[in-house]
Amino acid sequence: MLVGGACGDALGVPYEFGSRALAGEPRMLGGGLGDYAPGEYSDDTQMAVCVAEVAATGADLRDSEALDLIAAKFLRWRAEGATDIGVQTARVLDSVIGRNTVGLGAAMAAAAQQLHAETGRSAGNGSLMRTGPVAVAYLDDPAGLAEAARAVSELTHRDPLAGEACVIWCEGLRRAVLDGTFDGVRAGVELLTAERRQQWAGWLDEAERFPPDHFPNNGFVVTALQAAWSAITRTPEDDHFRKATSAAVYAGNDTDTVAAIAGALLGARWGVSGIPEEWLQVVHGWNGYRAAELMRLALRVAG
Q1: Residue range 243-270: average pLDDT?
Q2: Dist. CA 186–CA 158, nearest whole Å
Q3: How many domains are contained in the chain?
Q4: What's the CA gap between 30 and 10, in Å, rounded?
Q5: Does residue 66 belong to any structural domain of this protein?
Q6: Could you tell me if residue 89 is inside a domain?
Q7: Chain centre distance of CA 30
Q8: Is residue 279 part of a domain?
Q9: Span 111-167, pLDDT tens digits
Q10: What is the DSSP code string of 223-277?
Q11: Domain encompassing residue 97
């Protein structure tokens, strides 16, 4: 899961928001909107690493202490390692810089709530992109997974749509790890409140009917999830990881995030052996992680 997300991220980096024209099969060329080296992942995986490092301690991600630690890691990343950052996430994090770690998670979530109240628009894809480690931390507890996914999402993204998307995708990741199928995405809808299930089921139906580039406004969490799900479900399973992450990149616009979201689920389903070897050789990024270190981190999260 973690390596798959990083590889999708690094594959999409060169093409984010049209920073390089797509011609032929996407490649890990670096560049993009930052000074990325070939194979270097961006904020999508960097923030997932922050969550994973806390989860690897065995902490319950629903607890205030764990959320304080995740929030503190986000701030450290913001100061030391952020090669890119979403506007919404930056505003929330910048509003709590300098606060003590104790209570930091609550303060960050309150800042996210305030931003949502002011703008009415906080359903970006910035929490969905980092959500994978939550699934690995709750492999035997889908109810706990749903609670933790919402709590970690709400540190920066207060719109309920963001939390719902994280619940759905985390359940997809959990079931992919345990069962080796993609059935968990549909099962994730059942973890939502009854009044929200029909709308999300319809959005998944739509994603299965149309190609990824049908959802170009993929900075929005719903269309980001739809583009990733479309890339996965509409791509033949022969060499599935390569072809589906490439299809996610071809969705355009927020290419690294859509491919990271898709890559996490594809990696959870097919394992590292399903990821192209040449990608495993070069993927790397903040905090000094390469593929092997990401694998070890994920295994610690799983306990």
Answers
A1: 98
A2: 23
A3: 1
A4: 7
A5: yes
A6: yes
A7: 20
A8: yes
A9: 999 999 999 889 999 999 999 999 999 999 999 999 999 999 999 999 999 999 999
A10: HHHHHHHHHHHTS-STTHHHHHHHHHHTT-SSHHHHHHHHHHHHHHHH-GGGS-H
A11: 2-16+35-302
